[in-house]
Write a structure and sequence with these properties.
Blueprint: H1 2-5, H2 44-59, H3 63-75, H4 80-89, H5 92-98, H6 105-113, E1 117-119, E2 122-123, E3 136-139, H7 143-153, E4 165-168, E5 173-176, H8 191-198
Helix pairs in contact: 2-8, 3-4, 4-8, 5-6
Length: 200
Amino acid sequence: MCRREGMKLFLKGLRCETAKCPVERQDRNKPPGMASWRRGRSSDYGIHLREKQKVKRYYGVLENQFRSYYKRAVRMQGNTGEELLGLLERRLDNVIYKLNFASSRKKARQIIAHGHIHVNGRKVDVPSYLVRQGDKISLKAADKTKKLVKSYLETEGGVSLQTWLQVDAATMSGVIVALPTRDDVQIPVEEQLVVEFCSR
């Protein structure tokens, strides 16, 4: 997926920071497929599609989920593209990854689905749960859970903590101090192209 989009989507966690990353390897840093070198210039449709696919794969959502987020963003006040990215940033799996409780979004989804995460004292096992300002993210009171997350927190090279999140490494908990803005989105994307594609 990273090769297809021509950039790192950080789907494999720490492996993306090493020389094993396919994007870093000289023999595999071109798009997948046997005749990728023959491909010509992309059409306008292709450019719009690539932007949409980049965002969808970065956050790890399916097509129907992405469409649902888009429809919700259209109904919200403000710029549709920025609202769409804000909704995706607020997903619980993304928040767990940004808090460095997991090495990747895929691992974060697994931790959530197995019931290790509590939001405001209640167990939440839905990775697509949208957090709100003031929500407190904590861990299940089990040694296995704390040992698992502690290993991620102590690993070097994690995601740099953003201003809308606050983490307490001692208690291994986090707080949503504000809602994410457009500046908090770390992937280079032109959201207007995504909106134009979805509004066809």
